[in-house]
Automatic annotation (TrEMBL):
Residues 415-433 have a biased composition (Basic and acidic residues). Transmembrane segments: none annotated. Coiled coil: none annotated. This is Phage portal protein, HK97 family. It holds the Pfam family Phage_portal. It comes from Selenomonas artemidis F0399.
């Protein structure tokens, strides 16, 4: 069967009701995320919160925009990119997804569901031929306590069940309490998210009900109930909607309008919204200035905060991606030779002044060549001379330094001896004369 052939490298596919589906040309269940299939209603509600959505999208884009390169232990990147898995990670994960979209989708699933899954489709040669996103809302890892065997269970829209082994599934997870299933960050924010939702509802009703002009209409004569209702309805119709805000009210019949509305800034709504941004940003470990919260952001500290964000937030995510890919896409023998790495160098270099200083130090210490630096800046190489490594003449090893000092001392003694001898001979000649 086609599915079994695709899994022939590991023989890991345990069961499927429809064996005719070809994973290189997959059925809809493999790409349900592309078709907008409903996920967890709780996760969808969390995604409707603008702060959660912003954090998830920021992390997804920041992960997706950085390339994943394949390296060899001894041959570097050029040799590593020849492995079939390299193209999936760097160029195209599957016929429907670029590498960027694949990484972006998995990272978004990670932020909303706490888990992200991708099916590894094996080609006839036993190498990975495609990576397909699995719907995290219907994919569940199950651990058999008796055997210790972990399997992944998923199903399609028709309800057909599929069971996959771990060797065929890339599984990324957020912080986990059991080592198997990740916990979505927003789970700790449920009270805060409810509060933010209530605040937005209040603001919406605040303006919808015309609170900006609400108050009391006071008449100098008694008005019956029917007249009050009619007067209230006419007032709201003319002045009680947002589009009628600011209109001049014309009063007659001895009516006097006394506003009782409050101003939102006086109700500390601005502070409430700032608190909501900071709470969500804290849980997702995203700097508040990335969510347009600029109260404490300055030009001087923005770059420092950006570098801290890379080191404390992105690098742990990079590490998880790299370890999962290395373990699942390469055999045990291949892992001794191949490994993948996010290229975060561009993010860590900073602005042009910092890059110039960084490159200068790397070239002077022989770490980078001129051509390697030019490649990082997407400039053409300058030829063979640009491939040479440079080091300062002031640098040497301790043993070489000791040998140099001894050589200098010996040279000084030799020169001193010749001088003494010539002086003595000259003195003897004078005495003989």
């Amino acid at each position: 069967m086609i599915l079994q052939k695709l899994f022939s490298r590991r023989g890991a596919f345990l069961g499927v009701d429809d064996p005719a589906s070809d994973l290189l040309n997959p059925a809809a269940w493999l790409i349900s995320a592309l078709n907008g299939e409903d996920g967890s209603i709780t996760a969808k509600q969390a995604a409707r919160n603008s702060n959660v959505y912003a954090c998830v999208s920021i992390l997804a884009d920041d992960i997706a925009k950085l390339p994943i390169h394949t390296f060899t232990v001894d041959g570097g990147r050029d040799e590593g990119q020849k492995h079939p898995a390299a193209r999936l990670l760097y160029e195209r994960a599957n016929p429907l997804m670029s590498a960027f979209t694949f990484k972006q989708t998995l990272q978004a699933h990670l932020g909303l569901y706490g888990n992200a899954y991708a099916l590894i489709a094996w080609g006839p040669s036993g190498y990975p031929a495609a990576l397909w996103v699995l719907d995290p809302s219907v994919t569940v890892p199950r651990l058999d306590i008796a055997t210790g065997q972990l399997t992944y269970h998923t199903h399609d829209r028709a309800g057909r069940q599929y069971v996959l082994q771990p060797s065929d599934v890339l599984h990324l997870r957020t912080m986990t309490l059991n080592g198997i299933v990740g916990v979505p960050p927003w789970k700790t924010l449920v009270p805060e998210l409810d509060g933010q939702k209530a605040t937005k509802e209040f603001i919406r009703n605040f303006y919808k009900n015309g609170t900006h002009v609400s108050g009391v209409l006071q008449a100098d004569t008694k008005i019956d109930a029917e007249a009050k209702n009619k007067l209230r309805g006419e007032w709201n119709k003319i002045y009680g909607t947002p589009e009628n805000a600011g209109k001049v009210a014309v009063l007659d019949m001895g009516l006097d309008y006394k506003p009782l509305g409050m101003q939102l800034d006086q109700a500390q709504f601005i502070e409430t919204q700032k608190f909501g941004i900071n709470e969500v940003a804290k849980v997702y470990r995203v700097p508040p200035h990335k969510l347009a919260q600029l109260d404490r952001a300055t030009y001087a500290n923005a770059e420092a905060m950006g570098l801290d964000y890379i080191k404390t937030t992105l690098l742990p995510i990079f590490t998880q991606w790299e370890q999962e890919i290395n373990y699942k896409l390469f055999t045990e023998a291949e892992r001794a030779k191949y490994y993948v790495k996010f290229n975060a160098a561009a993010e860590l270099r900073g602005d042009s002044a910092m890059r110039a200083q960084y490159y200068k130090q790397m070239i002077e210490t022989g770490v980078y060549t001129i051509n390697e630096v030019r490649a990082m800046e997407e400039q053409l190489a300058i030829g063979e001379n640009g491939d040479k490594h440079f080091v300062s003449l002031n640098y040497t090893t301790l043993d070489n330094l000791e040998a140099l000092q001894l050589a200098k001392a010996g040279s000084a003694r030799l020169k001193g001896g010749e001088g003494d001898g010539s002086t003595e001979r000259a003195a003897d000649a004078d005495d003989g004369a």
